[in-house]
Specification:
By secondary structure, the chain is an alpha/beta fold. It is about 50% helix and about 10% strand. Strand 9, helix 14 and strand 10 form a beta-alpha-beta unit. The longest helix has about 35 residues.
Length: about 575
């Protein structure tokens, strides 16, 4: 197809158009085809199977929807009227994504702006925005043509893991700057977790677009102005309100419970300026907490370049212990649902209605079961095991949700109905840095999942305190009289985690004589004195099961990677089976 419009003619025409969405969008897209020399949908695909307007797509929320434009293997495209909220258009496309065969690009436009959201697997899919003015430049036209001809141009080499490593390293430098200015380590950690959540919230649309980045860049040479403005922003996030001309949602959740800030020097603002351009929406929640904990905790700074537990390693525990029994149950439920659906579809009248209700109840009951499973990590660290447990439950819940839609049943979003949520996660962690990061990790991962699956954001307050993640010692506590006692663990269906692996000969040098003597006395006759520290977690889990607690499945990986022999962990009991993950 020849070029039928010059960039100047296209921009002049569409800059002055004030037509409503329904009257403007098809002509706008046809003009785009002319601008880049691409055949129009009808010319390229007379049958409308691979490049067409109004492509039918099942919605995640139920019913049939239509993507405004679809080109198989290239893009799904959704229009809104001028100055409309394009985040909502993107969420709409996310609902169609599976029905559109997961195209490499998801494109939204309000006529004046085109936003390209890459949809590549395991890539930092940073959006690209093209304005009308951009289309007057060679670079802007190249990006526009790439949508139609070369979508791989928008694929970056950077993975979420790489982004997370890079910004965690910068935050470690920022922690050093604040420490050099004389601030206390815990105050530094709390402040920096607030900053990183602001960066994340901005890039997922929970804060107004570019708000935090503009604040940093405009006050970079004025530390006092930055501190004053940031305090006002924190105050707005604490309860919801106004920051200048922008309305800020209610966040709080304990993270934004006041307006306190630490003053950043010019050196600190220089570091912050380097990270505002990163796409914080793609940070990898699996490793996020661990990397930031190492950067914020002075005692762990030497571990910055050390190996961390990968997603694959964590799933080796989460899958067999938490998910495998649920998947077996889901297979049975699906078989029952298929039989009921067949009976329903052949029935009529009241009998059909009764079978339809029975089918609905069957799948709702299983979805409710997923929302009731309680998961405990008594060595929670910065929350990566709990996060992946929640993610796995949500992914299985999504299978139930999709199955309900396919069977013509009523399904509601996880924000409106019964679905897995952070509230069913239980954690114990003694380290104050890790404890606070665990809550941020879980909420960031949960918000990422909702967004990636087209369900939007949690209702306000966006952050709720996760009271079930406690800061305490998991194996030694004291009663009111100061006597050593075993701390109570919350009852849970499943215990997973990554307890510290510390050889018996190193206990005293690492933990001190007083602590170790009390530990030996408390667990005397149950855990041999030469046993590894990890065995105390195993023993408490074993005792909890034996005493009739809810916990039915236990699986751990010691926090260091040298495999401890089972006989060394515990001999002459059932504990070896728990170590292997058997029930």
């Amino acid at each position: 197809m020849p070029f039928t419009l010059t960039p100047q003619a296209f921009v002049a025409k569409w800059r002055k158009v004030t037509l409503k969405e329904s009257a403007a969008t098809k002509e706008h897209f046809l003009d785009l085809c002319g601008l880049v020399g691409h055949p129009t949908p009808a010319a390229a695909d007379a049958e409308g199977t691979h490049f067409t307007f109004e492509y039918g797509a099942a919605k995640l929320g139920g019913g049939q929807g239509f993507a405004d434009v679809f080109k198989r293997g290239f893009f799904g495209w959704e229009y809104k009227g001028k100055h409309a909220n394009l985040d909502k258009a993107y969420l709409q496309l996310l609902q169609y994504r599976a029905a559109l065969h997961n195209p490499p690009l998801l494109v939204v436009s309000d006529i004046e702006t085109i936003v390209i959201h890459p949809n590549f697997v395991n890539r930092a899919n940073t959006p690209t925005t093209l304005t009308l003015d951009d289309l007057l430049t060679p670079a802007g036209l190249e990006r526009l043509r790439a949508i139609f001809y070369h979508p791989a141009l928008f694929e970056t080499a950077e993975t979420p893991e790489m982004v997370t490593q890079r910004v965690a390293a910068e935050f470690a430098r920022l922690a050093d700057v604040l420490a050099a200015d004389g601030h206390e380590p815990l105050a530094i950690a709390h402040f920096l977790i607030r900053l990183l959540f602001c960066l994340f919230a901005e890039d997922v649309g929970l804060l107004p677009e570019g708000l935090f980045a503009r604040l940093v860049m405009r006050t970079q040479s004025q530390p006092a102005a930055f501190a004053g403005q940031l305090s006002q922003l924190f105050a707005a996030m604490a309860s919801g309100g106004w920051f200048g001309t922008e309305q800020i949602p209610h966040f709080d959740g304990g993270l934004f419970d006041n307006a306190a800030v630490l003053p950043l020097s010019a050196a600190g603002l220089d570091v912050l300026a380097r990270v505002v351009g990163a796409d914080w929406s793609v940070i990898d929640a699996t490793i996020f907490g661990t990397l930031f904990e190492r950067g914020l905790d002075p005692a762990k700074r030497s571990q910055l370049g050390a190996h961390y537990t990968s997603r694959e390693d964590i799933l080796l525990i989460v899958e067999p212990v938490l998910m495998a029994p649920l998947r077996r149950r889901w297979a049975t439920v699906q078989e029952q649902a298929q039989g009921l659906a067949g009976q329903r579809d052949q029935a009529k009248g009241p009998k059909r209605s009764g079978l339809h209700k029975k089918l609905q109840d069957l799948l709702v009951d299983f979805a409710s079961e997923l929302a009731r499973v309680s998961v405990l990590d008594p060595a929670a660290g910065s929350g990566n095991f709990l996060y992946l447990a929640l993610l796995s439950l949500l992914d299985l819940w999504k299978e139930v949700y999709d199955r309900m839609l396919a069977l013509g049943l009523t399904a509601v979003s996880p924000l409106e109905g019964i679905a897995p949520s952070p509230g069913q996660l239980y954690g114990i962690e003694v380290n104050e840095y890790a404890h606070e990061l665990a809550q941020a990790t879980i909420w960031i991962g949960y918000i990422q999942w909702l967004r990636a699956n087209g369900f939007g954001a949690p209702p306000e307050p966006i952050l709720k305190p996760i009271q079930t993640v406690r800061r305490m010692d998991a194996i030694l506590a004291y009663d009111a009289a100061g006597r050593p006692v075993e701390p109570a663990w919350p009852p849970a269906d499943v215990i997973i985690g990554n307890p510290p692996f510390l050889g018996g000969k190193r206990l005293r040098s690492e933990l001190g004589d007083v602590y170790v003597n009390k530990l030996f006395d408390l667990y005397g006759g149950r855990v041999p004195r030469e046993a590894d520290l990890v065995c105390y977690w195993f023993e408490k889990a074993r005792a909890q099961i034996e005493e009739g607690g809810q916990s039915g499945r236990v699986f751990w990986r010691p926090r260091r990677f040298e495999a401890a022999p089972i006989a060394k962990c515990w001999s002459g009991s059932k504990l070896g089976r728990y170590f292997l993950g058997a029930v």
